[in-house]
């Protein structure tokens, strides 16, 4: 097991240990360009649980495709314990991915995931890790949490997967967390489930994590909080635009659905968001397109259609006007 730094958070309260049981063992598969924040938030609660309990409640090992190291999205190299060989019978596998997850999917990784699932050793995935499980065919019909930036891609590629906006999902068969600090929330949930809420609370205190979230908590700050919007009509209008990106409604259709005039809808958007309904809807569509370009290898024509554009030339012009480069140039920057 790779060495981890000792706690520097001062005197450690000793929780009443649960009855002696063998430590739970996790194996973390680090996909190249994995998110270091999500990785740390997954492992540190386990380390601190051991520290607070005064004995090993959890053990873990690190895996990568090459079996020697994995590079995170911040450029740091992490040494790992082994490659894609079979796990031990009592190990449970978590997949942690990050940027360009779809481009990191390989036949040997998919075979590994399917084999470990068949042997009952797959626990779940964190950040964009669920994309790999979906590609392996392991998430059909499952409720899944993954980082909001990958929601469009997951829904586009894997419509049988039930994407939810929650920070984590502790399902009966698969555990998923949206990345970042949501990984800590999931692990604190597991610690509480395994060893009681008192221990989970002490671990959270050691982490200075005083806002532990339930799985149902939303990933993103609400539109109401982000913009200080309290007008219910405007909130409904925004939701209509957000849920119909592939087939964007016209402002007059949204106004009719809300029972107001188009002029009144225009005034609401100008007053609270500083833009027009048409422009707001266009920016939503272009942001989805950019996410799909950055995260997938889908043809640009398909991305245009998925973002509500029936003309690729119109899509290219709008994209350049918004981001200062064409869709093709945006994709070329990734290679």
From TrEMBL:
GO terms for molecular function: DNA-binding transcription factor activity; sequence-specific DNA binding. Gene3D superfamilies: 3.40.50.880, Homeodomain-like (1.10.10.60). PROSITE patterns: HTH_ARAC_FAMILY_1 (PS00041), HTH_ARAC_FAMILY_2 (PS01124). Keywords: DNA-binding, Transcription, Transcription regulation. This is Transcriptional regulator, AraC family with amidase-like domain protein. InterPro entries: Class_I_gatase-like, DJ-1/PfpI, Homeodomain-like_sf, HTH_AraC, HTH_AraC-typ_CS, INH-QAR, Tscrpt_reg_AraC-type_HTH. Residues 235-333 form the HTH araC/xylS-type domain. It comes from the Bacteria.
């Amino acid at each position: 097991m790779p060495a981890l730094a000792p706690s520097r958070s001062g005197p450690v309260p000793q929780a009443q240990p649960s009855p002696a049981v063998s430590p739970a063992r996790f194996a973390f598969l680090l996909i190249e360009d994995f998110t270091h924040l999500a990785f740390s938030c997954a492992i540190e609660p386990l380390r601190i649980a051991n520290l607070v309990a005064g004995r090993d409640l959890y053990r873990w090992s690190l895996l990568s495709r090459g079996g020697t190291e994995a590079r995170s999205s911040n450029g740091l190299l992490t040494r790992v314990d082994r490659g894609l060989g079979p796990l031990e019978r009592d190990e449970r596998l978590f997949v942690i991915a990050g940027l360009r997850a779809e481009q990191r999917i390989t036949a040997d990784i998919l075979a590994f995931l399917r084999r470990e699932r068949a042997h009952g050793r797959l626990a779940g995935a964190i950040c964009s890790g669920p994309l790999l499980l979906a590609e392996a065919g392991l998430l059909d019909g499952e409720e899944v949490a993954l980082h909001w930036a990958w929601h469009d891609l997951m829904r586009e590629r894997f419509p049988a997967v039930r994407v939810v906006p929650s920070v984590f999902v502790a399902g009966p068969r698969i555990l998923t967390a949206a990345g970042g600090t949501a990984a800590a929330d999931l692990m604190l949930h597991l610690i509480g489930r395994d060893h009681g809420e008192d221990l989970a609370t002490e671990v959270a205190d050691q982490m200075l994590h005083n806002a532990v979230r339930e799985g149902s908590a939303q990933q993103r700050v609400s539109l109401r909080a982000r913009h200080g919007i309290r007008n219910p009509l405007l909130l409904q209008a925004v939701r209509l635009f957000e849920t119909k990106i592939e087939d964007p409604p016209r402002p007059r259709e949204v106004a009719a659905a809300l029972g107001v005039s188009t002029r009144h809808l225009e005034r609401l958007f100008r007053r609270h968001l500083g833009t027009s309904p048409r422009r707001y809807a266009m920016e939503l569509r272009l942001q989805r397109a950019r996410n799909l370009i950055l995260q997938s290898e889908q043809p640009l024509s398909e991305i245009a259609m998925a973002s509500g554009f029936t003309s690729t030339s119109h899509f290219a012009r709008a994209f350049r006007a918004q981001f200062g480069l064409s869709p093709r140039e945006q994709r070329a920057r990734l290679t």
